[in-house]
Amino acid sequence: MTSTRPLRADASRNRQSLLAAAADEFAERGLNASVADIARRAGVGKGTVFRHFPTKDDLLAAIVLDRIDALNAVGERLLDAADPGAALSEFLTVAAEQRQQRDLSFLQEAGELNAEVTRVRAQLFQTVHRLVDRAREHGAVRADITGADVILLMCAPNYVTSYVPDASPDLWQRYLAIIFDGLRPEGAHPLPHPPPMSLDATHTPD
Amino acid sequence: MTSTRPLRADASRNRQSLLAAAADEFAERGLNASVADIARRAGVGKGTVFRHFPTKDDLLAAIVLDRIDALNAVGERLLDAADPGAALSEFLTVAAEQRQQRDLSFLQEAGELNAEVTRVRAQLFQTVHRLVDRAREHGAVRADITGADVILLMCAPNYVTSYVPDASPDLWQRYLAIIFDGLRPEGAHPLPHPPPMSLDATHTPD
Amino acid sequence: MTSTRPLRADASRNRQSLLAAAADEFAERGLNASVADIARRAGVGKGTVFRHFPTKDDLLAAIVLDRIDALNAVGERLLDAADPGAALSEFLTVAAEQRQQRDLSFLQEAGELNAEVTRVRAQLFQTVHRLVDRAREHGAVRADITGADVILLMCAPNYVTSYVPDASPDLWQRYLAIIFDGLRPEGAHPLPHPPPMSLDATHTPD
Amino acid sequence: MTSTRPLRADASRNRQSLLAAAADEFAERGLNASVADIARRAGVGKGTVFRHFPTKDDLLAAIVLDRIDALNAVGERLLDAADPGAALSEFLTVAAEQRQQRDLSFLQEAGELNAEVTRVRAQLFQTVHRLVDRAREHGAVRADITGADVILLMCAPNYVTSYVPDASPDLWQRYLAIIFDGLRPEGAHPLPHPPPMSLDATHTPD
DNA sequence: GATGAATGAGTATTCATTCAT
DNA sequence: GATGAATGAATACTCATTCAT
């Protein structure tokens, strides 16, 4: 949060290349993707990676940050939608599409990440909570469902399809639909366990 | 399948310690858990690990094998149950309980593992297919659900709760219930995507 | 053959230290010399070895390459000498001096080494063949001697003296002289076995 | 030299299997041949190897011992031969045949070996010295040749042919003949270096 | 005596990170 | 600012040797 003066043009270009390259490399190789490969893919020297991101983990955090921010923007926009049920459904669809593009599921391993991520994630959580509250009030989802539930279930469709070797890239739609059916009021059975109190945003559902 | 003569008493004890220690260590540290740490945890020398499991991957395979076998046994028993819907539900419950005990989700990263694993996994798949077929015929699950769907969704409850820092150990029950509601015929909406053809069992949903 | 831009000054210095240290270490400990020891002896970190030579074998190959190249250069120069007999003798002397400086006889154990080595070795073989042909035509060596014979016998003087614990460093001269006498036409007895067809240069007489 | 009571029948059989297996394995794999492989090849347990030979080096020593003893026996018998020149030639032939059967040239690496070996080797050296002295007195070898010279040159033919990939098993005969021609009085040129004083038999020309 | 299970020092190699150019 | 050379901790795996069975 040090008062970042704007980067020189080339530096900013490098930063972008790096984020893209890193996201690709991580998506392909998981957390073990090597900094050297990322640098090569970005067309810069290894040293440059560390000038921009003091640590491999910081690089990871930056990627996650971008992603969460983008998703949060979508969520906030949908808060004003006319049909709250459709809005929630749309939000989950966008979230899954985003995850599908680049599988960052391995992030689960990556422990706490940095504080900035936690902050942005907390924002996203707020947004989801509001989306869910509106949907619930509208009767679009069952009464016993919370924002936390949706946050947790949000990644399941992609997770689930990641096991299918040569899956259609849209297979997640099937499982999102099934899960969403489970969230609806119609035919709902009482739930055997209360929802988690709050997700402290230090962990990583995205 | 080499006609393994029964292990010496101490050797067999070591093998058990190793499997337990390795499962714990893998669960805590993921695939990068080091053989040295596993050995230390099991209270044996590093060399002993390799005597029992020529390769880190073989160790992993042994753990997975045990797990799948156990689960398959449960599934086969449930094939004879009176209520096919309850049987399927029971099966998913046992699967989740097993996964809850030790999280092996990192296995997703692991490549093919060995052939034995693939074989046993294929058996398990068969069992699940039969459980699902029976449940469907009984009207306990919707008509458009296949065995493959259930295999894929089976792990979702644990995956989802793994994001909650200090979750109640039974939280998965909540998400299994939601997902199972999504599988029921009541209130089902048509699914936007066909199910995957077949899971080739070289990959790792367990 | 990748268009290697010239190494940075320090890197090139390190490369030289490494080659020297490795040659010494190999000479003292044989093929089992450890990369760690080589690094220590060169005064660099272990990682630096692998930056310069991706593999222990590549390091070995580099050493061998240098040696063969140097010897070949001498041989080619001697092809123009006035007295072909003296030229051959001189060549064998230089070869033995080179080997005496650093004993690489352990190389016999080493497998194929890399293709570059094979290529350069084939060149050296050509050179020797020509030296021997000229000497034979001049009557300086017996008629039934081939280039292959000389290539094989070339290393014998050093091999032989390597058994003498505190030998004079010039002792090889004695055995080179004896062997060379065996190659002369005077007093030659017919040979009981034909010469080898061709040495395929994937093996390692140097 | 502890007053070895005669071995039990099976033990003695094991000892022989071991020596044979070890010689083969060493010949095929060099000094790095593993004790486990030797044991397997001999059809005994690994522990048995160490009961008979407290150390891998001791096993090696035992093999060498057998070999030297056998060769020495031949040498001593030839001391009484009618033609001292032929006797020396015959001796060198037998030595080369023996070495050809099983290549133990890697032994050079094997440092000092044990005292027993040194003792037996000293005997062999004596024998060779006497064979050479007789041959010299008879004019069968040049006057400036010593027993030490012959001991050293003795192994050269096998060494030299070990570089030829698919050599005829008798190729050594060619090089023994060349070297022997170099030892003859006819056409001998004066030698540029005095012979080594004495070979202290702690090193290993066989 | 024989066996093979256990041990741990040793090895090549990788990779995040630092720093001289 | 950018580069890539240097570093060394970490890792899977091997093998001579010891020792309980």
Nutshell version of this structure?
With 206 residues, chain A is an all-alpha fold.
Walk me through the topology:
The structure is a homotetramer of 206-residue chains.
Chain A: H1 9-29, H2 35-42, H3 46-52, H4 56-78, H5 84-101, H6 115-137, H7 147-153, H8 156-161, H9 172-183
Helix pairs in contact in A: 1-2, 1-4, 4-5, 4-6, 5-6, 5-9, 6-7
Chain B binds a DNA duplex (21 and 21 nucleotides) through helix 1 and helix 3.
Overall description:
The structure is a homotetramer of 206-residue chains. The first copy, chain A, has 206 residues and is an all-alpha fold. Chain A folds into 2 domains: 1-54, Orthogonal Bundle (Arc Repressor Mutant, subunit A); 55-206, Tetracycline Repressor, domain 2, CATH 1.10.357. Chain A has helices at 9-29, 35-42, 46-52, 56-78, 84-101, 115-137, 147-153, 156-161, 172-183. Chains in contact: A-B, C-D. Chain B binds a DNA duplex (21 and 21 nucleotides) through residues 7-11, 14, 32, 34-36, 44-48, 50-52, 54-56.
